[in-house]
Amino acid sequence: MRSWPDVCVPAVAGSGPPLRLFDSSTESVREVRADGTATMYVCGITPYDATHLGHAATYLTFDMVQRVLRDQGHDVRYVQNVTDVDDPLIERAHRDGIGWQELAERETDLFRSDMEALRIIPPQEYLGVVETIDDVVVAIEKLLVNGSAYRLEDGTGDIYFDVRADERFGYVSGYDENQMLEFFAERGGDPDRAGKRNRLDPLLWKGARDGDPSWPSSLGAGRPGWHIECAVIALTRLGEQITVQGGGSDLRFPHHEMSVAHAESLTGVVPFAGHYCQAGMIGYDGTKMSKSLGNLVLVSTLTAGGVDPMAIRLALLQQGHFRDDREWTDELLREAERTLVEWREAVSRDRGADITATLVHVRDRLADDLDTAGAVDAISRWAKTVPGPGDSADAGLSMRTAIDALLGIAL
Questions:
Q1: CB 363 within 8 A of CB 15
Q2: Between 20 and 30 A from 15 (CA), which of 85, 198, 340, 370?
Q3: Domains in the chain: boundaries
């Protein structure tokens, strides 16, 4: 599957302190450690509707992780998936009277356009489930052999993962069993499915059903479950251990928990990731923005209405901490538009102002668990104090470059 066009990230002299990020498995902010190349897997969209600002905020978070790691001298190997066959997508396609492949491609293409507009650095590999089914089948065969998976005895051909086979199950989210069951039922799980060994066991392979897409395989005709796809794509493209696994906070359980359990059961290597990192939800009118609720603010709608995508990006960066649930408002966007004007005016003036102290502060803020609001504030304070026309344009050029490289905002 093709990604979107690459983003040129300019180099900025020097570097900041090591990046420290919150890790859900330890409930602490810890240093991100990578020897040379940092590897990052971010769970992608299920393309049954347009990209909203909640999606944008998540992928912007991990764009910022990548920018900070690059600024510190790391190469970054980044992989993202697209869940281009799954129950929500198929149900929406049936509802709208459109082929599921056509729906998936249409919405994935819109997502690409939104990511390009927001200057999100694309993954080196962007993979749909459909193109990785053979790898998934091999992985499930291995889980069956090592006792981590089992077939239901009801003739459906469904295969499940046995969470009791993983002694560490639960460490990624840190949730107790009651919390897990609540989220599992809300987020695509089937705790009451008859014949399962444990209510939390997730589906690995769904046997063929009338009217459903399926693929022939050694497991029987069917298609992958949700969590196994991410485990397999990450393992086959990034290796047995990665630096960061990312996604939205609604993926902390079950998706991250389950996919990590699959990966570790396949390899025996723990932990799967050095950091498990989740971005908070974006709300609108007092409720979490979601497709199911329909309270969406779409990136494409804003840009089609003439909103500068850099203002959208800046609004999300200055809105608050990435791990917190936040509220999107029209005033937030207007404030970002005003800030963008101030920054553009400041860097356009010739001057001899020294940006060293501001750059140090920006890097410090970003390295401290991605305090993007603090970094934005530092630049705004700098913009208010720059002198009028002077003898040199070097400072303006340097700050423009720094803002581009570190915040991804083109002035």
A1: yes
A2: 340
A3: 20-284, 307-407
Q: Would you say the pTM of this structure is higher than 0.90?
A: yes
What would the two tokens of residue 132 be? Answer: 């990785």
Tell me the two tokens of residue 364: 């410090």
Strand partners, 303: none
C-beta separation of 200 from 267 below 8 A = no
Q: Residue 148 carries which side chain, given as an amino acid letter? A: S
Q: Which two tokens stand for residue 235?
A: 């393992």
Tokens found for residue 392: 């040199």
Cα four-point dihedral sign 295, 296, 297, 300 = negative
Tens of pLDDT along 7-47? 999 999 999 999 999 999 999 999 999 988 999 999 999 99
Tell me which H or E stretch contains 238.
helix 226-238
Q: What is the CATH number of domain 307-407?
A: 1.20.120.640
CATH of 20-284, one of 1.10.150.20, 3.40.50.620, 3.40.50.2300, 3.30.70.100: 3.40.50.620
Mean pLDDT by 10 residues, the chain (411 residues): 96 94 98 94 93 93 98 97 95 95 96 97 97 98 98 97 97 98 97 98 97 96 97 98 98 98 98 98 81 80 97 96 94 97 86 83 98 97 79 70 97 94
